[in-house]
Amino acid sequence: MSVEAAGIGVGRGRRVAGKIARYALLTVLAIVVLFPIYITIVNSLLVPSAITSQPPKFFPTNPQWSSYSSAWDAGHMGEYLKNSFIVTILITVGQVVTAVLAGYAFAFLQFPFKRTLFVVFLATLMVPFEVTIVTNVTTVNDLGLFNTYWGLAVPFLATGFGAFLMRQAFLVLPQDLRDAAALDGYGHFRFLTRVAVPLARPAVAALTVFAFLAAWNQYLWPLLVTSGDSHRTVQIGLKQLRGLSIDQVNVTFAGAVIAVIPLVILLLVFQKQLVRGLTAGAVKG
Amino acid sequence: MTAAISDDRVVSKSTRRKERGLALLFLAPSLLVFGVFVFYPLIHNAYLGFYRTPPFPGLPKTYVGLDQYKDVLTSSDFFDSLKTTVLFAVMTVPVGIALGLALAVLAHQQLRGIGIYRTFFSSTVATSVAVAAVIFGTLMNPQVGLLPWLGVNPHPPILQNPTWALPAVAVTTIWQTLGLTFILMSAGLQTVPDELLEAARVDGAGAWARFWHVTLPLLSPTIFFAVVIGTIFAFQTFGQIDLLTQGGPLNKTNVLTYFIYTELIQNSNEGKAAVLAIALFLLTLLLALAQIRFLERRVTYER
Amino acid sequence: MARVVLEHVTKRFDGTTAIDDLSLEIHDEEFLVLLGPSGCGKSTALRMIAGLESPTEGTISIGERVVNDVEAKNRDIAMVFQSYALYPHMTVRRNIEFPLRSRRVAPTERDQLVSDAAESLGLAPLLDRKPAQLSGGQRQRVALARAIVRRPEAFLMDEPLSNLDAKLRVQTRAELVELQRRLSATVLYVTHDQVEAMTMGHRIAVLDTGVLQQVAPPQEVYARPANLFVARFIGSPPMNTVEGRIKRADGALVVELPGGHAPLPPPIARAVAARNLDQVVLGARPEDLRFGREDGVTASVTAVESLGHECHVACRLDDGQLVIVRQRSQADVPKPDEKVRLVAAPEVLHVFDPTTGSRVDGDT
Predict the structure, then answer these.
(1) Pick the CATH number of A68-278 from 1.20.1250.20, 3.40.50.300, 1.20.1050.40, 1.10.3720.10
(2) ipTM
């Protein structure tokens, strides 16, 4: 009995050691991945001379919050945040509405050339943005939308991806449901708003989060169609902060933190939806 | 039962007409946006390539047919940029996917609190290209103490260093996309049935053998998707270049997107920019198609 | 082949006890069926033997070595999963080979073993197909081939027939029994289907909520169930059970039932008296009941099901409890709403302690 007991003890010991090793590896990797964000937060709270010194400080013992007010006011990050929010919400609402409408049409309506039109929608995914910028800048200018919120939003109010996602989500709902609703006197629009969208809520949520993320992080287009501070977004604001001299480097870091915080909050709350949106095309092949 | 849109439903003509009208109404907003901002620009862009932009503004552009296409696409500038673009993709896509996969596998274990690690590993999804570039760019400033303290102190400094500039941008990009790749690979791992891995354990396969013979083959659709999408995104890299190196030093980071940008905005050479944009489009399209053709064969779908 | 021994094995998950102090031995070359309803812990027990879970307490031995700390891949057991767990991206040949490749068996020997296993299960023409191209029965045989190819010390089977259609199930049942005999294999077979248990096992181990109820050859489990759970679980239609008070009549103990009483055979009567029971649960299998003219218990027929070779007559006792009678002959079948008398010979009655559920035997 004692030999067996010893056998169990050794085995359990070995298992515990294995577990510790695994946690250790995971922790090391987590530190590596998070380090840039960590050091950014730290540096945003240090005095510039501390950032340029060696060895570098890894913990702000005397946090200087002034960098954040500098970034917000002098760095205009507050204004830029507002602009980003407005544009992002415009784009998100636009994308979701157009995607829901288009997806519903493909899933529940009958019309000629349905297949061709769907290919057209998918084809937009194949056209890289750079091919369109040359013309789009001119178009936006001609429409008088340079340096406006609409100018920033208008090319992105519809995506093939969104329509694809919503079509897939609506296709899962049985046609019987539509037929029953029709018998109950529901026209297409009421069916869409009262039945289809509520039932497809996960997909709508996923698309919303995904669209928000993509719109918030845009760089090239805001760069091309804005100038001056009035409508600049947070991402272009970062370009300004990048140009700050080394004696204001803490403000640069503070700006980066400000740019990230809204997304961090969004993602902590909507983690599940984001994952669903990101993997919509991938996993099923 | 999935929605079988039975196209042989018997409906009245007026109902059908109403549905068609409604469909048009529902599709119109999207189609309008696509028409104005995707397809028209694509065609217009091709058309612009036929016109050489004059060196001074105000002068009319001259129609040169395919000459501009020929000149630009055979220029050494273009080839260099093309090389840089491809090199950049090669640097970022395989490494990014491998790292994302490794993290996903490690975070797939049944340990208590593994959820926290998963959140950590996916955290970079909150970062944008600009944020990542500003963070890494500032850290790579030779006056910032962190890297020199670690012994990293090349001359010239990293972002001005012809050898190290592109790798530096690549590292920044890999980090920024790590969260996304991790999420993608994690989702793929969920599709590998636990029972299969258990059967492999009972059959005598160790951890590495299980990964290589069971997990990886079953993960191939996800990896395939990641490679295709990743390559497309790699070719569209812009923000990091603009914020970190502006195409330099010595044009060593002058990827096609940045080349297009400089020609359009700084040189006001609309014609040349248009040609380059078409080249980028074709490159992306051809590569995606090639990948689909050659790689999809090796993908093992369950059906 | 070797024997498998579980000694005082307990498994707890987050507060629930899945397996409670299980001690069980699977003899060398025995086909032991682990039977129980879903959630009883039988799959957990199997997985612990396989090494896919580790016991919270107790020891598990395969052959003569304790394997608690031995990894699944080194335990030298083979497992057939309920869903077969075939590698979908590999051909049948590669699937069967896999355990041999893992153990670095030499190619020539490996090929020989694979073709032997494939031959014995009739899979030779399918070796280059992929699982998706096979029928359910064929996939099951591939899973079996993969298990037998390396001649392990013991086989574990987790409800391998449940995904097959009824006809194939009957056929495969016989094939599995024959396979075990041919290979002289030690097999632990988990199922919730009592027909499989009765027809396949040398012994049946009945499990309920993690506790072993009885382990005995099928006939014994059927004829002398150790408790009410086993009595009701084995047999279709299940054993009829009715509660009754113990009364003295003409100097002998009888069980008072609604509408009559049942005399107890002397050995059981003695055991009942020895335990001071004033209430018991009486059990009678449907085929042990008949319709009589006197004695017995009054009842009223509610429904008659004719199955061709026999009839199932559902009767209601005076207090409303339902009793089912199996009658072989098609003649003299009572009709619905008819009043009948149910009789049974005292020797076929089963008596159970109402509080513990355990069998009251004449010789205890």
Answers:
(1) 1.10.3720.10
(2) 0.84
